[in-house]
Structures are given as structure tokens and as C-alpha cells.
Amino acid sequence: MKRDIRYNKKSNLLEDHIYHYELQDVKEPHLFRELFDYKSVPKVAFNNRHVPVNMPEKIWITDTTFRDGQQSTSPFTVKQITDLYRMMSRLGGPKGLIRQSEFFIYSQKDKDALRACQDLGLKFPEITTWIRANEKDFELVKSENVAETGILVSCSDYHIFKKMNLTRRQALDKYLGIVKSALSYGIRPRCHFEDITRADFYGFVVPFASELMKLSKESGIPVKIRMCDTMGFGVSFPGATLPRSVQGIVYGLNHFAGVPHEQLEWHGHNDFYKVVTNASTAWLYGASAVNCSLLGIGERTGNCPLEAMAVEYASFRGTLDGMDLTAVTDIANYFEREINYLVPPKTPFVGRAFNSTRAGIHADGMLKNEEIYNIFDTAAILNRPARVAVDKTSGLAGIAFWINDYYKLPEEYRVAKDDPLVVKMKESVDAEYEQGRNSSFGDDELVNLIYAIDSKRIRVLASYSLQ
User: Mean pLDDT across the chain, nearest whole number?
Assistant: First the structure.
């Protein structure tokens, strides 16, 4: 057998490409019962095989808020979708770091929302669609003036055998048929490899991906592969075995099936609290795109939060690259105000209390230097200043910090924790908790407390904040 040795310009090494995997058309489904016996918590196995970090030159985010995300909430109105789409474009910036956003096209309202967003004329995110792998759904795509559509191509035997009642060969032929139809109309197919973290990687996933790359080469149209961790089984641990290894999946599709970085996209769920780490790992090991939703909304435990990966991008690249992260705060506020969606207050970056402290010792540190207990300049980056919630543990420092923050006092007018007003306020706060109070003080309560203690002082504080 002639060896296929190629020079890799990225690693500057000669690499062996002798691997060729054929479809294994098994008679019985391979369900990985040694890992997923269903009667116990899924197991993580290791073979200690490691693959190299292979970060693409360009990485970006794609969005599924109006498709997967919307499946978990009350249906959005056309106006809500349009407003969120506009803010998402602002968040992604002029370089389009939020590259695409996918839409349903089944109802009239779905179609109206898609066209309303198209009419905005925004370059990014590009609007794409999502369909099941059948000709009836594809007929919908042809009328929507989109360049790309997602196609559901479930790849685990759980889905192929138990859901669709097909063999692997039948599933492969069905999928390839609809992909060929898309290519014949010049539409980019994005193949959603559903349940990839329970799929036979070398027996189905790689052979299928290899066939797709042949079609891509023949047509001159990039066929994308979305690696869907549908149940959140993916793990990022070094040396973990397939099918659960995120880096193994990404490396394998790139190395064994020849899928270019820019045609690989990761889509994860948070069933096991791993959604952000898994998305970051997909970037690190060779996927250019990670698929997310605003606030992480989505089926069951949700998708990867888009705002989390925007911050992760800045962490990896050392720059925002034009992203406007203040849009994150506006989006969170919009969800609460216009959609009546309750954002859990402790949610990183978007919860009302994510950068708020109650502990007196933390408040004391922030009073001296905010950088001690705030993750970064949240006021400048997210338009969300660090806060202190006043309760029984806040102490003098917490009350002083609240006054300075609430009235936005300039440096020269800020109160210290030994200020007589602060001391008297703490006495009143402590007295309430001694009488059985068990909730924190709201802003209005604290304003009224200042007024009761020193009505003249409150006018002075308000006047300082206006300077």
C-alpha cells in the first residue's frame, strides 16, 4: 500500500494520511452500553490518547436563539426577534464575530420574522435556516432567499435505529440525497450531526463526513458539519475516549475526514454543566465556529450562552475585535422587560447580581479598590458597574459602597465607612435583622433610610452625582 505523506504547513511536519474509513452497516445498533447503561450516571472512559491543540486562524460564533433557543421559551413575536437580531449584530461588531443566525421557516410567523430581519440589511449575522432531511422541508428553503440551510442528519444508532427505524446505509443515502438537492440549487448545506457524542465515530461519523467532503469538492460549495452534542455528553478531559471526547471528535473530523476548520462547528448542551468548556475546547482543537444562543436558552438545560463565548473570544485573542459587549446588558434587560424572561440573578455577565457582593469583607476590599473583587471593569466593558447588596453581612463597608455607587459620587465626594451617616444606617439595618428580617434591602428602602436619618444630606448626595 502506498503511503500518503503530506507536509502540514501549520505544524511544519510531515504527516501520514493512510486512514480511510468505510461505512460499517451493522445489523444491530451500537449503543455504547458500557458508557450509557441508562440506569446509572454515564461513565467517562480514558485511553490516554492525546491530540494536538490546533486553534484555527479565524474563529467565530454562530447563533441559534431563534431556532433551538426559541423551543424552550414562549414564542417570540416578530418584533422581539427583530429587536434581538439588531442587538446581536451590534454585539458581534463590524467584523461579524457573530457570523450567522438560524431561523425556523415552518410557520407564517417564522417566515415574517426571517424577512423582517433580512429587510434590516445588516451584513452580520447572516440569516440561515434549519430543516429536517426531507424534500418537503427543502421546498420551504428554496423560497426564502437564503444562501445556507441547516439539515438535521442524526448520526447515532439511538436515532438511526430507534427513532427513524433505518439502517446506517439507509440513513446515509437519505442524508446524501437531500444534501445533493441543496447543492444542485447552489445552497450551502450545514449538516447537523445530531447526537454525535453517542455515535460510532469510525463506523458512521467519519465515513459520512468523508462522503460530504467529496460532494463539497465536486460542487465547489463548502459543506459544513455541525457537531451536535445533543445530550451534553461531551467531555474535554485529556485522554478521554470517543465518542465523548470533544477534542477527539474535532481532530478526527479534520484529520481523518478532511473537513476544513472553517467548515466545522460545535453545538453543545449543558446537561452536565460542561457547555462552555466544551465549546472552548472545540475552538482550541480545530473548529472555527461554536454555536450558541442568547442567555444560553434552549432545549432542557440550554445551549452554550452566546455572551459567554464572546467573552471567551476576547480571552483567547486578547481583543474584542470590534465587539460591543455593552449590548449583552441591553439584551439581558430586553429579555426581562419585553419578554418577561427571568434571568437568574447570579448568571455570569447577564444576571443582575453577577458582580454584586453581600459580604462585608468583600465590600471593604471594593471600597478600597474595586479591582480586588471585580472580575474586570464591568462598568466599561458591559455597562454594568460592580454592586453591593446591603443585608446583615454587608457591614459599614457595604453601606458606604452602596451610597457611592447609587449616587455615582465622584472620587472627591465619596463617603468612607466611618462616615456618621454610614454608621447610623448600619445601626438601623442591624436593628431590622435583629427583629427577624431575612431579605436584603432594596434601593428605595435605603434611600428612605438616608432621608429619615439626614434629609439635608440626601439632597447633597444627589447634587454631587449631577456634577
Answer: 94
226 or 397, greater pLDDT:
226
Handedness of CA 391, 397, 400, 401 (dihedral sign): negative
pLDDT at residue 458 in the model:
84
Q: Say if residue 71 is exposed, middle or buried (CB neighbours under 10 Å; 0-12, 13-18, 19+).
A: middle
DSSP 437: -
Q: How far is residue 116 from each of residues 122, 127, 447, measured CA to CA in Å?
A: 11, 11, 44
CA angle 219, 103, 293 (to 5 degrees): 110
**SS3 state of residue 153:** coil
* Residues with Cβ within 8 Å of residue 132, at least 6 apart in sequence: 151, 152
Segment 67-109, tens digit of pLDDT: 999 999 889 999 999 999 999 999 999 999 999 999 999 999 9
Per the model's pLDDT, the better-predicted residue between 66 and 14 turns out to be 66
Q: What are phi and psi of 260, to 5 degrees?
A: -60, 155
* Confidence (pLDDT) at 2: 61
The widest CA-to-CA distance across the chain, in whole angstroms, is 92
Q: With beta carbons less than 8 A apart as the criterion, state whether 289 and 264 touch.
A: yes
H helix intervals, 185-233: 206-219
pLDDT at 65 over 50: yes
3-class state of residue 148 by DSSP = strand
Query: Grid coordinates 443515502 are at which residue?
Result: 173
DSSP string for 235-252: B--TTBPTTTBHHHHHHH
User: Considering the entire predicted model, what is its pTM?
Assistant: 0.91
The answer on pLDDT for 1 being more than 50 is no
Q: How far apart are CA 219 and CA 411, in angstroms?
A: 64
Alpha carbons 163 and 284: distance in angstroms, whole number: 33
- As a three-state string, the secondary structure of 59-126 is CEEEECCCCCHHHHCCCCCHHHHHHHHHHHHHHHCCCCCEEEEEECCCCHHHHHHHHHHHCCCCCCCE
Cα atoms found within 13 Å of the Cα of residue 341, Cβ hemisphere only = 22
Cell of 244: 465523548
> What is the spatial distance between Cα 418 and Cα 395, in angstroms, rounded to a whole number?
11
CA pair distance 328, 342, nearest whole angstrom: 15
pLDDT tens-digit map of 310-364: 999 999 999 999 999 999 999 999 999 999 999 999 999 999 889 888 777 777 7
How far is residue 405's CA from residue 399's CA, in Å, rounded to a whole number? 10
